[in-house]
């Protein structure tokens, strides 16, 4: 004989959610970091149930797969036809004959429900030795929800369907939230007596209460402190409403721990993300997934961070990051794109219009402007000039580039991987580097420049450029430098062309 289960949780998630008008089952719709179902299971988790059963039906396969990801211990039970909430619970209990003690039933579409509230419901239920206890809420507008009908002494008499309610019952604003605690034995017994003699021809779980009351069993009502927790979600407009409510709850909680959120209405923090004290979250910012923002970091405005870690006192401005790490005191953006495994060490900088993927940017290293850094290791204090491209892909394979400590890469350089630039080496601006540059050397591949005199006057006669050139020449201006006639090559001295100041002039800080 298996041990009896003292607590069993049943989540009802077989409904289609017709009004969502979605290919996705309703309970799989996401809400700030978890699916609706994920939120409900999280609220039930502290009950430490011996078994959690999830009744699946519409989109059963997808819901099952999701459960293996978020709650592998939960047992999905198929309700092939949605014959009502009572039917769903009956099927769930058939799958757990060991269920004794308390059975907690939760509608799958109440994602704002808090663990504390479920725990209080169960404590009240178990404390009073009730046969059944329903979570009720006083709501401003009860339309569409079933009403709690009490007798003169305030005891629950029945739960009435809105469509069956008398005008007086309709005026009641105390509703059934769809969350209950039952005594397993008496629940099983009552479920066996449910009829389908109603409008929808369904077995209503709510009828269990009327049956228990008639049988003289003690039933209880536990009123939720905040009705918002009990809000269900039937369509996408309601889902967006829940999202705003959850956003406010999450933001408020972070502000109370010492986080500055400058514009809470445009700051969306997933329930799974974390923010440390004295961080500042500026407007229009999303912190998603497992994102963790360190103390005194400044994030935003206009930032989306997904599964990204931001170190203490780092700044991230108008940027998008996925699966990245930003070290303490590092600076990102504006307009940076950090892709998976972009790892920015402390005090490094990834600036404007820079994309970084699967690369380490060393401590104090800088990639300030207009660059692509892919599959690279950049040493401490290296400086990567504007418009440097780490050419990592040969069309078939990806290769790595290593830039040594305090190396200096001039602007508009291609580093063609696999390649290594040694510590303290320089690369002249405009180079295409495909061979290793030894430590302390200058790598340069620039073609010598030639200037073809009089070309504009001949080829672009009548343009503003030609006129400007003519005036300048008349004034005796000269740009200096080597000059060639058309078709004539100039052979520069590499030492001159590639002089460090040539790189330095065009590299940027
Ligand atoms: C239900 C309650 C109502 C309560 C409201 C709160 C009943 C009869 N009514 O109404 O008293 O005020 O919730 O939101 O219980 N489900 C199944 N199998 C089924 C039918 C439903 O798994 O055969 C699931 C749904 O997926 C959903 C939950 O049960 O998660 C509730 O079903 P829903 O159709 O939304 O019930 P409501 O009409 O909202
Ligand atoms: Mg509903």
Structure description:
The protein is of the alpha/beta class. The protein folds into three domains: 7-134 and 175-230, Spore Coat Polysaccharide Biosynthesis Protein SpsA, Chain A, CATH 3.90.550.10; 236-443, 3 Solenoid (UDP N-Acetylglucosamine Acyltransferase, domain 1), CATH 2.160.10; 455-497, no CATH class. Helices cover 22% and strands 28% of the residues. It contains twelve helices and 41 strands. A nine-stranded parallel sheet has the order 14-17-20-23-26-29-32-35-38, with no helix packed on it. It has a seven-stranded mixed sheet with strand order 5-4-1-6-10-7-11, sandwiched between helices. A seven-stranded parallel sheet has the order 12-15-18-21-24-27-30, covered by helices on one side. A hairpin with a 2-residue loop joins strand 2 (30-31) and strand 3. The longest helix is centred in the middle third of the chain and has 21 residues, at 236-256. The N and C termini lie far apart (75 Å).
